[in-house]
């Protein structure tokens, strides 16, 4: 089985970290391929960057040469999953939805701890669109930018732990979702500080994607995610 894990930004080191996290959750025999878009922002922290990333990820996936069985979009609260589902027949799993749906098996309410406050509405909208908001206790911001998760790891852990504790104590969350692909591998540290299960979206997405592939399930093409109709699209960067 081969799964493509697409970073939504152009930072290669983050792609490598995300792919490594995905491999740690993958079953023997599952190959993880990290994908970095050829254009876009070096981090995604707002609507403009998110919409740009949506196009960039579709471009990167359609340019990939070789077979694959599933795709993971590794951007928390990002746009674009629906477009990928129209373009592809293989399962497409978004880490936002993967983390939240996994958390719901582990506790009554979950909270998300993410990066900057401006990303909170994007995540709330994605959860609402997916029908996963009813059991979300809160979405909290650590105050750190995406790239700071790599450049200042100790400060990142401290900020994430602080907000995770607030979510448990004040918002009554029973599970915490790490709200950024760049937070991969922080589960143990945050869990030790809070005493609750910590869910990473990348690792959750891998296990979900593997399960869908093993069951022989593919994206439905009868209506919502039907293949785009042939038409002239001027200036579109995605190869035909």
Automatic annotation (TrEMBL):
Substrates-to-products reaction catalysed: D-5-benzylhydantoin = L-5-benzylhydantoin; a D-5-monosubstituted hydantoin = a L-5-monosubstituted hydantoin
Pfam families: Asp_Glu_race (PF01177)
UniProt enzyme class: isomerase
InterPro entries the record matches: Asp/Glu/hydantoin_racemase, Hydantoin_racemase-like, Iso_Racemase_Enz_sf
Domain of life: Bacteria
GO MF term (any one): hydantoin racemase activity
EC annotation from Swiss-Prot or TrEMBL: 5.1.99.5
Family: Belongs to the HyuE racemase family.
Record protein name field: Hydantoin racemase
